[in-house]
Amino acid sequence: MKKGVKLFGKKARLGAEIVAVGALTGLFAGVVITCFVALCSLAERFARNDFYGFFRRNPAFIPLLFLALFAGSVLIGGIMRFMSSVRGSGIPQTEGATRGLFRFKWYEAVTGMFAAALFTIFMGVNAGSEGPSIMIGGGCGSFTSDLLRRNAIVKRYQVTSGACAGISVAFNAPLTGMAFAFEEAHKRFTPEVFVSSFSSLVVALVVRNLLGPLMGLKNGAFFSAYSFGEVEPFNIMFLVYVLFAAVIVALVGVAFYYLVLLVKKLFERSGVAKFAKGIFRVSIPFVLAGAFGLITEYAMGGGHGFIEAVGSKGELHTVFSSPVWATLLIVVLLRLVATVLNIGAGVPAGAFVPILAIGAGMGALLSLLCGAMGMDAAYSDALVMICMATFFTTVVKSPITGIVMVVELTWNFTFLLPVILGVAVGYLTGTLFRTEPIYDKLLDDMLEEAHRTHPVEEFIIKVRVTDMGHAAGRALRDVLWPGGALIVKILRGDEEISPDGNTHIKEGDILVVKSKTAEKKDYLESLIKTVGELVEEESAPALQEEIKG
Question: Could you tell me which of 134, 139, 146 has the C-alpha nearest to residue 173?
Fold first, then answer.
């Protein structure tokens, strides 16, 4: 009985600690990311209206634009060279940190990504602020943990809660933040992840909604140009149109995924990536961004303006006085090429909204096609929303996040069933063509690159469960294990147990852990804090036969 009371007290103290530190993370992340998003909004507006507007009005000066873009790309390449974690959207690095697989320095995540992403948007590149907001939020959580000298376990919770706060503040969408924490960051649910993420995002959103209006950010739906009217969401013919559109969008999503991998390989093998240690790596995306931005303003920034323009309450400006369908096709192609190049080259900028913008453009095109086939025009906005979710899910392979995100960003729950249908088609199509979650694939590539300089060590360790750790009394699936840890056997007295996720851990158990890590010191610290105390460590080959037995 005393052990049970003691265990309950320990869990309660851990929960209180996570809530308190999570709230502080949310406060810090709320201030930093609100400022970041507001500055990115100003930078995008300046690039679209003033910077590129000047060159459109004065074509003789266009060569100066490309010179400025090339110089800017060299600056960003230099930042990427000296701050290795500042690349891409920042989501793969943050997910790796939450899983204990990747360690980034919080000051690089906060200051480096903040400056690099803001400058990239300022130059008119097809880039959003949402992905970097996730990394900056994760960095805020890491900083808070270091400031309060928390252990490795609490630090991982705070990186998660900071990242969750980051996307919540960027989209003003709490449910999307929670879905990201479970489905993308950890790919599972634990009470501690829920508590830390919830406490952080609540505080961060309060800060955002207090400071946002003072900085020009609106409260309310992220996309407000969509009207869903008095239409029947369960209309059978509309569901047929949804199925038709979802298949096309999903196939384009599969092509997008494999194009990203192809372009990434080309950049890695090209002389551009190797020359001057990769400083010129992002020059091609930057220079092309200039050409795309001169063609249409809808090819610039994250794509929020384009997504709003294709809504029924929006106003789409045609490209070169072309028909609407031609304008939509041009913008979709430009954005698809630009996003593929950005991800492939590792441009420090977000791809979250650019991916949604491609889906929205295809949705608008398909709504015109379906309208010609007899679909009621009142369903057009719903079809655009569904195509956004479908394309996102096909590429990212996070169906719950895709569903929650588009529903929450448009503040419409009426078409939940059609959205689920579209997302299911996207997910199944991606599975059929053997795509992996794009951010997981990018993380694997980063880890492989990191392991070339920091080799992975494999060993087997035995640890005893004590009341000093957090694992006692929990099922295996409910414990936040260090990245690279695999529990292969539990020794309980004279009994040997081959565990699964439902196996409960008891005080006194000895866990046989197969370990794989490039950061052994941090790994051991995290494992011992989780379980209790070290019993024995041996090289992997020495205990292979024991494990097999």
Answer: 134
Task: Give pLDDT, residue 1.
Answer: 45
Q: Say which range, 34-48, 273-287, 406-420, has the weakest mean pLDDT.
A: 273-287
Say which residue the tokens 């931005």 belong to: 293
| CA gap 285, 283 in Å, rounded | 6
| 8 Å CB contact between 127 and 304 | no
Task: Check: CB of residue 228 under 8 Å from CB of residue 381.
Answer: yes
**Which DSSP string corresponds to 447-508?**
HHHHHHHS--EEEEEEEEE-TTSS-TTSBGGGS-PPTTEEEEEEEETTEEE---TTPBP-TT
Q: Per the structure block, which two tokens stand in for 498?
A: 């081959």
pLDDT tops 50 at residue 55: yes
> Which has the minimum average pLDDT: 109-123, 199-213, 333-347, 402-416?
402-416
Asked if 273 and 73 count as a contact pair (C-beta separation under 8 A), the reply is no
What Rg, from alpha-carbon coordinates, does the chain have?
24
Q: Give Cβ neighbours of residue 28 (< 8 Å, ≥ 6 apart).
A: 140, 143, 144
DSSP β-ladder status, 532-539 and 485-492 = unpaired
Q: How far apart, in whole angstroms, are the C-alpha atoms of residue 54 and residue 62? A: 9
Structure tokens at 319: 């490209």
- Averaged confidence pLDDT in the chain: 86
Q: Are the C-beta atoms of residues 33 and 136 closer than 8 Å to each other? A: yes
Q: For residue 307, what are its two tokens? A: 């997504």
- DSSP characters for 194-231? HHHHHHHHHHHHHHHHHHGGGGTPPPS-S------TT-
pLDDT in tens, 179-202: 887 777 767 667 778 888 888 989
